[in-house]
Structures are given as C-alpha cells and as structure tokens.
Design goal:
heterodimer; A: alpha/beta; 5-stranded mixed beta sheet; 9 helices; globular; B: alpha+beta; TATA-Binding Protein; 4-stranded antiparallel beta sheet; 2 helices
Amino acid sequence: MTVVIGFEGSANKIGIGIVRDGEVLSNPRRTYITPPGQGFLPSETAKHHRSVILTVLQEALDEAGLKPADVDCVAYTKGPGMGAPLVIVALVARTVAQLWEKPLVGVNHCIGHIEMGRLVTGARNPTVLYVSGGNTQVIAYSERRYRIFGETIDIAVGNCLDRFARVIKISNDPSPGYNIEQMAKKGKQYVELPYTVKGMDVSFSGILSYIEETVFSMLVEITERAMAHCGSQEVLIVGGVGCNLRLQEMMGVMCEERGAQLFATDERFCIDNGAMIAQAGWEMFRVGQTTELADSWITQRYRTDEVDVAWRD
Amino acid sequence: MASRNSSSDAQLEFVLEVPFPSQREASIALQALSPDQEPRRRGITKTLGASACTLSAKWTADEARILRVSVGSFLDHLALVIETMDVFGQPVLQ
C-alpha cells in the first residue's frame, strides 16, 4: 500500500489531498474569491493560502482517518503557476516531509490534472485537452513525454473567460467561469466574433468579449486535429474550464462523429485540487522519481513536456 | 542591524540569527527555506546557513526598499515554517 499526500496552491485554490493506491481518501480545498471586477494577485493569494493551509492539512489527515506516520510520500506542486503562492505551499510540504522523514516529490501541475483524469475516468491513452485559467494545451502521450501538440499562443482560455467576467462584473463566486456558463445557458442571440485557430494552436487575446460557442469551437477543432494526427479514439478534458458542460457537449458531438470516446471529470477533480498532485506523486514515487530538498525550488514556468514520464510505457 | 559597509558600491547589509530549540529544527528550517530563489534577482543577495541550534540569514542589497521587501518576506516564510513545526512536529520533535 502506498499513501501519498499532495499539496496544490499554484493559483487561487489551495487543496491538500491524500491518495492510497488509486483511492482518494480526502481532498479538502479552499478558494480565494475576489469581489466582482477584480482578479486575484500573487501576494494576496499567497496570504490567503498561508492563512488556511495548516487547517486544510489537518482536515486532509482527519477526513482520511490517517496519522502522519501512515503517509509514505509528500508530493507538492513544483510549478507552473504564480510564484508567491507556490512558495507558501512548498514551504509546508518541505517542512512536513522532513518532520515525518518521508521523501518529497515535486509534481508538474498539468501532469497532476492528467493523472487524476486518467485515474478517475479510466481513459487509457487519450488525447488530452487541458483548459484552465492558467493553461490551454492539447497533449498526447508518446515515448515517456506528454507532448504538447497545440497550445494558446497568448492567454489561456480560462483567463479569457475570467477577464470577460471582470469587465462585465460577474461574480467570482464560486468561479467566474461557472457564472458565465449559467448566464450563457439563457442566451438566445449568437454574435459572430474572431475565430483564431492557427494549425494546432489558438489565440484568445483578440476576442475578450465573446460567447462560449466561438471559443469552445476553436478548442474542439484543435483537439480533433491532434486526434487525427495521433490516430486516437479517446479524448480527456482536464482543468477548471473542463467543468463547463457546453464544452463537454460540443466535444461530445465531435467525438461521436469520429466514433471516439469522451472522458471528463466533475468539479472535484477538474478544478485544482490536492489529490491530483498526490496521484501524480504516487505514480512518480513508485518509479523512484523523488525530489531532493535542494532541488525542490518552485518555478513559475514548467512545461508539461519537460517531465520524464517514467511511469508509462 | 542594517549597515553600510565602506566599499565604494555602498551596499546595505542585514544579518538575522534565529535560535531554535534543537539542531534538528534549525536544519529543517534551513532546508525548507533555502531552495527557492529570490523573486527579484538583481540588487539583492541572501545567504542562509545553520550552525548548532541557530539559523542565520545574511542579506546584501543596493537599496533599503529592496532589502525591506526581502527581509519581510523571509520573516513571513520563517513564521509559517515554525508554525508548521509546532502543529505537525509532535511527537517527532519531543
């Protein structure tokens, strides 16, 4: 039995989760929500995480019914993300790893999403659409790397949605994207806006006032292109924007047309959480990929394809 | 205490010594606090070390404002590490 605790706090969510051999034992999370019209800044976000992290850690242990001695490995988000909050989380992870005398594993945040998506859905080797406030990538696994087939050439799709919500002062509770989705359901008029796909890549900065249809269509197109390129029959959507049911619906139509299968998770795991870091950490730990303390620095930039995916063949 | 040394580049220096109840705790704090790089690389250096039960931190900086931000940030991070040891260190640190 291998029990891994995972710490995540690279954006405005702080989550700590515990995974035991594919079972999520606990996954508490808190979100730093700003007033309508305001985004979240690094130092305030770091303050928020700092104020709740030890409480959330205790909750994670209590809900799992475990003591520190029961944990085999401490996983944390090495990057990518916002520097100040990443440091807060890494400090606590490094401290408890030493207190409890357990190995440390620095996890790539994007790979956390992918590994949790694979675990929860059972998708074996999908083309992955990773869409969140901070990231937009189309990814396929090949020869020990998660290859980035396409990505945004400027801002993440979730960033585009969040900025739009800010302009028209939609509430950030529970998230701006969720509130856009609810309002969009009642929309009756489609407005044609710039549609920007360049091969496998997309651009969102030119269309900050938009409706979901255009943006999600762009994402479906690049996902389909990657699937055709890889001969893939599975699609997995991960990242906070993946919660959006309209995106799932549109992707589902494309998959059905191709005879492919669509996989998606619910808000527990789409949205940043600690258990996904624990799950990726579990994979890494079992193939011996631990992180020495001196190498455990956090980094704001960390490409998905920099990681040696030694746990897959 | 911050002081200017007499060299021609007029740098500020600041030294902090933090006592811990044991060598192990000073070492844990050092290893938790040292891996991350300063967010601002130019105009400031920070060196951490531990000896017996004491964690030491030494800064050199070009401007008081930069020094203040770095020292303040370090103290916040140090406080978090200490609180984590207080809450989760038992019975290991008895």
